[in-house]
């Protein structure tokens, strides 16, 4: 079934910031893998909440507290539904980083013992690496890393070889924030389970762009961030299988997460509240709910097809440029385009493009081990979303040609 085509001009009208001029030039925002822009519907939902319904949640008998609680809990329901999960399995966090820290510190601290293994991959964002380093060091567990194929895909043979009787969890990214490759996470979850391990998927770069169904994937945990999917910063989620979440100890203690508190000990609230200590970021959760409603209304399949078509166009145009080198595979990818351009440093490219109103990112993208593997200290990265256009890709190509001219060609 082909997805309905996006009316990109109409969609662009939903995002007020896209009308901005940067250094006198129209903005071409190609830094979506770092953070997406926000539609007016999300901004209105957040401000509407604070204008009309704000109070602290869950404990209040008064009208505003009831409204705030309803807004917060109905956001939880739509966000859970968006990834095919159940409401009771959806914990609000500050984002992917906090979601993974939650699993590492709660499940990991309870289940990892001396000699156990955590299987990660060479393409993990620091958010899905450093939390495991910390918990593994405390437990005496070992980290192992699945390698990549020469074109930048996950090496499934290596994964099968490294999965062993001591593997307790396989934690991997759904989509690489540098290589743009979509990993076969359902296959990995199946292999992990066959080996008696759990599977955590970092969905930071997938949930905004792909139709995600955690049940179809078959993973145990799925983490994602609101700000990359049209929602506010400071909000994201962890989905986990109910029986695992029920059995896990709390991570942070405080208000909201308890059932009963004595001076010396306490009992815990039911999941998801057990993992939401303190006053939650209610306004941001409302904004994430609105973002998910917005994305669902536009249609994830339509968004994905648009991005695939635009990525194809971008790669066709960019690979025509002498000196352009793509990192990551040509196929099985989304619109995260990391590249090198001759010997012009990525930071110089980003600065030159910025002067033309084009926002790309340059750096290690929180992928330092991957950069070392690729033999570079940084890449330039253009990353696409539903509001990007062919004209913006053309501007990027012209900007790169201008950069080359400015540098007097390549050495
Ligand atoms: N994982 C991946 C693959 C990412 O791309 C990012 C952000 O760039 C993160 C995790 C961390 O997300 P956040 O900073 O929103 O917690």
Using the 3D structure, state the CATH architecture of the largest domain.
Answer: 3-Layer(aba) Sandwich
Number of DSSP E strands = 17
List the total number of helices.
14
The CATH homologous superfamily of the largest domain is termed: Type I PLP-dependent aspartate aminotransferase-like (Major domain)
Mean pLDDT: 97
Q: Report the radius of gyration as a whole number of Å.
A: 22 Å
Whole-number count of domains: 2
Structural class per helix/strand content?
Answer: alpha/beta
How much beta, percentage-wise? 15-25%
Q: Which strand order do you get reading across the main beta sheet?
A: 4-10-9-8-7-5-6
What ligands are attached or bound here? pyridoxal-5'-phosphate
Which fold name fills CATH's third level, the topology of the largest domain?
Answer: Aspartate Aminotransferase, domain 2
Regarding CATH, which class of the largest domain?
A: Alpha Beta
Q: Per the principal axes of the C-alpha atoms, what is the gross shape? A: globular
Helix content range of the residues, please? 25-40%
Summarize the structure.
The chain has 411 residues and is an alpha/beta fold. It has helices at 8-13, 40-52, 63-82, 96-111, 130-139, 156-162, 185-194, 214-217, 242-247, 282-298, 300-319, 346-355, 368-374, 390-406, and strands at 21-22, 25-26, 28-29, 90-93, 117-121, 142-146, 167-173, 198-202, 221-225, 236-240, 258-261, 266-268, 324-327, 336-341, 358-359, 361-363, 379-383. It has two domains: 8-30 and 299-406, Aspartate Aminotransferase, domain 1 (Alpha-Beta Complex); 43-296, Aspartate Aminotransferase, domain 2, CATH 3.40.640.
């Amino acid at each position: 079934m082909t997805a309905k085509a996006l009316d990109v001009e109409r969609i662009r009208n939903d995002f007020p910031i896209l009308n901005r001029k940067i250094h006198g030039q129209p903005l071409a925002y190609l830094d979506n893998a770092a953070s997406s822009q926000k539609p007016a519907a999300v901004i209105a939902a957040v401000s509407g909440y604070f204008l009309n319904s704000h109070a602290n949640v869950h404990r209040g008998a008064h009208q505003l507290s009831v409204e705030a609680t309803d807004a917060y809990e109905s956001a939880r329901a739509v966000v859970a539904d968006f990834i095919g999960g159940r409401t009771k399995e959806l914990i609000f966090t500050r984002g992917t980083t906090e979601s993974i820290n939650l699993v590492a510190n709660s499940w990991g601290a309870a289940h990892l013992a001396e000699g156990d293994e955590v299987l990660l991959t060479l393409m993990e964002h620091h958010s899905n690496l450093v939390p495991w380093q910390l918990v593994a060091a405390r437990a005496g567990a070992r980290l192992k890393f699945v390698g990549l194929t020469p074109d930048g895909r996950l090496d499934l043979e290596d994964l099968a070889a490294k999965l062993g009787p001591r593997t307790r969890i396989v934690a991997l990214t759904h989509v690489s924030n540098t290589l743009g490759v979509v990993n076969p996470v359902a296959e990995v979850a199946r292999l992990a389970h066959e080996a008696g391990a759990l599977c955590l998927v970092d969905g930071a770069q997938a949930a905004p762009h792909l139709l995600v169904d955690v049940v179809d994937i078959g993973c145990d945990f799925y983490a994602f961030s609101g700000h990359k999917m049209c929602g506010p910063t400071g909000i994201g989620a962890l989905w986990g299988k109910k029986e695992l979440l029920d059995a896990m100890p709390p991570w942070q203690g405080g208000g909201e997460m308890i059932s009963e508190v004595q001076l010396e000990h306490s009992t815990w609230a039911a999941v998801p509240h057990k993992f939401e200590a303190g006053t939650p970021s209610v306004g941001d959760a409302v904004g994430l709910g609105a973002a998910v409603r917005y994305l669902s209304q536009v249609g994830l399949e339509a968004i994905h097809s648009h991005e695939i078509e635009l990525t194809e166009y971008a790669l066709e145009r960019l690979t025509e440029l002498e000196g352009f080198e793509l990192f990551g595979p040509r196929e099985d990818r989304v619109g995260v385009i990391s590249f090198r351009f001759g010997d012009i440093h990525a930071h110089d490219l980003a600065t030159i493009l910025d002067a033309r109103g084009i926002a790309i990112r340059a750096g290690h993208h929180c992928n330092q081990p991957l950069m070392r593997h690729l033999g570079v200290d940084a890449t330039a990265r253009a990353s696409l979303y539903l509001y990007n256009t062919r004209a913006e890709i053309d501007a990027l190509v012209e900007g790169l040609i201008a950069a080359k001219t400015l540098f007097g060609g390549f050495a």
